[in-house]
Specification:
single chain, 1158 residues, mainly beta, eight-stranded antiparallel β-sheet, disulfide bond, repeat, transmembrane, signal
Length: 1158
Amino acid sequence: PFLTRFSQRYNYHCDVPLASTLPRESFSCSSQLSRSHGPGFASLNRRDGAGGWSPLVSDKYQWLQVDLGERMEVTAVATQGGYGSSDWVTSYVLMFSDSGRNWKQYRREESISGFPGNTNADSVMHYQLQPPLEARFLRFLPLAWSPKGRIGMRIEVYGCTYRSEMVNFDGKSSLLYTFNRKSVSPAKDVISLKFKTRKTDGILLHREGQNSKHVTLQLVRGKLILLLNSGCANLPSPDAHATLTLGSLLDDEHWHSVLIELGNTHVHFTLDRHSQHFQAEGKCDYLDLDYKISFGGIPGHGKSVAFPQKDFHGCFENLYYNGVDIIDLSKKHTTQILVTGNVSFSCSHPQIVPVTFLSSRSYLALPGTIGEDKVSVTFQFRTWNRAGLLLTTQFQHGPVALVLVLNDGKLRLSLSQPGHPARDITAGAGLSDGQWHSVSLSLKGNHLNVMVDGEAASVAHSLHGQIDSGETYYLGGCPDSSSGPGCGGPLAGFQGCLRLISIGDQAVDPIMVQQGSLGTFRDLQIDTCGLTDRCLPSYCEHGGECSQSWDTFSCDCMHTGYTGATCHSSLFEQSCDAHRHRGNSSGFYYIDSDGSGPLGPALVYCNMTEDTTWTLVQHNGSQLAKVKSLNRESPQPVFFKYTVSLDQLQAIMDGADDCRQELVLRCKKSRLSAGPDGTPVSWWVGRTNETHTYWGGSLPGAQKCACGLQGNCLDSQYHCNCDAARNEWTSDTVVLSHKEHLPVTQVAMRDTGRPHSEAAYTLGPLLCSGDSGTATRQRGFLGCIRSLRLNGLALDLEERATMTPGVDPGCPGHCSSYGHLCHNGGRCRERPRGIACDCAFSAYDGPFCESEISAYFGIGSSVIYDFQEHSNYTTSKNSSSFATLLHGGLTLAGEMATLSFRTTGTPSLLLYVSSFYEEYLSVILTPNGSLQIRYKLDRHQEPDVFNFGFKNFADGWLHQVTIHREAAVVSVEVNQNARRQVVLSSGTEFNAVKSLMLGTILGADPDTLRASLRGFTGCLSAVRFGPAAPLKAALRPSGPVAVTVRGHVAAASQCAESKGTRAPAREANRPISSGTDGGEALVSADRRDPAVIGGVIAVVVFVLLCLTTVAARIYQQRWLYKKNESTVPPAGDSAETALKSEVNMQSSVSESQREYFF
């Protein structure tokens, strides 16, 4: 979980403008008002032409499209109106596609509404896409626009290059990966991939072992199901067989992302933005499987497959198993991969064009085929609605009508003629399930036929007149002016999707309909299926069954014990006291102790006495239990099972003032304790499976019965009557009342092995009284709370919500609209009337975390950030901080490191992170200027060394480096475009991180030490390792800092004047530490008397003015002499001066080659 949050918070910088650099031909549109309003003028801030795109007609069927040239990762979009006009868009829909066909709507935060647009012509509305999307084509569809103008748009798209490996399965092929045992992590398997398909069923992956053990991921009716079989026959069903289901409508031919983290006894399963977690209570190992895993199918059908299965038909992308690129291995034809069937390494794009009927008033009118003596129509549809008009037509000759409707999830085809009885056919069932269903209907001669999903039904008719094709076919509904058959009745129009429409054996091209050259339509979306599963995730609580239509969902709360729109409100009182207040007498009642919480109602007995109400919970051992040894073996303890779950028991006790349970012990030559030290030979076990040896009214830990405390035991030498071991029956009646230990789940009496020794006991029900939790008997709050302060202190509701049943973290507020304003890892924080950007985990500063924190390093200088020292401060301040975890010897399964640098010196050490276990990460520039990254994650192994020879990086330019490690997989990004992925062999975990060092260091491996002897001379900025930002801690301390600075390190506003500049920036330096051998931690600036400081400043200013006058006179006399001499930069210890001199020298060489080379 830590790694997941870490990766989400610190992902790559991917925000390069993509659209503004494209040629005009990359923009297209539905229509344009004039040539100067064409799509080529639609780039953000563009003012030529008419200053943006405007369509010929402003309606909701218009769109602006951009072709990015290749598949890109898109992280944000921005819009403007037409320059200097009254034209802008106030709301729009964003669609995306890989091929320019089969578009999909990007839905923001599970919302079905569009993006917020502009309120004027020139302001920019920026929206961050969370999560990002990958696509080549984007479409902006205006929904609403300026009431005083028309549609006007200028747009920008932000993102970066997206690289991927693809493999295509044809439904009869698969990949079998055989891996080395040493390459398998003993703790966890991690499988990640993306897939897309148009089929509803298929095996994505399968791995099996002995005793029918297997892990299988498969599509079933468009849902993704993870099947787990532990192979342990002795386990109860929840552990032996587990099924996790995610997703719906996954046969949409769009990419879906899958991540499976499989541990020994736990599974974390993620599909797109939804996750499920399963924790097994047994001891079986889900990782104890064969060293083979198949993708796309099961070769030879597998030895453990006992379920129907189909091979996958579609595409995979970026398939990784424990960091291994499976598709790359397949391309290289390695012996580890066995390819079965026809597998290709590209993904074809579909040519099927779906049509979405958005409302009950939608319709599509298509012309019939003239001259045919038959009717033939085929199509496929999917919908959630149980009823709707699908098709109606009237023949060209004679008043014969054909009407096809969906009614109660079934198809009914009617053929009617005035004066003749109508002929009806009913076919299919359950067709409103959101799946694609194929329909084929035909009328020829005297036979009417309809086929649904391959099952045919037919009927004979005796209608008179010529049978011919209808003049116009209306699909989904009728125009308002139509009064034909099926129109204007109580049945609403169809809402859903249609595709593969054919009339008279002629396929219909919906693109021609969109362009206006075929038929007419209303309220359609063409080239997309906009069907949404409103039951994913299900908002029905407590087991309520979710059902849906096109625009709403409902919950069936029958037999759940709850009521309300989402089965949230309990039908039962929360306690026996509440039943008493309603005037009920003693008896059995259902109580719901946590109200609307996740626990269900429990059946208890409420005993209403004169002054107290008791809640009684029975168990399965209320009769006298006799204990006697057989064959000198100790008797087994008795386990008690209560009529309600342990969670419900705890809720009942949490809401009670007092709980108790009576235990009657009967003994004959049987003791509770034996030996002089009172060693217990009998005990009982409580709710938390802890063993207790105290009895009755004593305090926990005291091995005395009630008679021992009261001094009235039968034998004063003992503390319990049973311990006297008399040859006659004695008893101890005890009352256990320590609520935290109740109820009793086991009783063990082991001293029954001697002759004539016996024991028996009776355990009474759990009794609770008082009603501390539900005294007011009010229903729980249903809604959203944010910005809560208690006595002026802000409370972390999100953290608390993760631990509270029935409460979920997250509350849409200002951050949902304006969170994109926080950059560079800054976190948006809600305020009562706005937002604030928390830059604590960012290497930047400022109101929006955009102010770069940079420093110039002189020769021999260094900055050391001590994680352990930092944790000593942050532990008391923030127990959840990253450094606090490090202080405890945290094992990092992954980390993110970023930095920007500018230098001309080699070799140079850019970054060094050490640990207490001699593990480290170092980033250096080699003598030839190439980038080298060294990981050593095991002290007993040699380090992993990776050279990234993209270019000579010691060229005085600003370069950015991002390193992202997850287990053994390391991804490196340089200058936001050059990427490389490598796999470590030295280990997968970074243990006990100690410190981070910049510049010169002591004590490292020879190559790192060789680079560090020169240290680093130049400019560093945006340095970050996880949430630790050493330069920020040094230059902008917010408290006692854990940073030590040695040598000359000077603050700078930024390392480069502007993005892309080649020349070094001229920055104002601020020394933060003078060179000292020992070094010292940064502290606050010295406080001096203001008057003294002012006097010193005045004297210095006067002296400088005098020196300036003298220098000017001398300079004037020597100017003619000096102007022809070459000037040499003065020596100094300023890192910036040295860097600028070297860069200027390089610049002059490159710009005036003839002066230096002959």
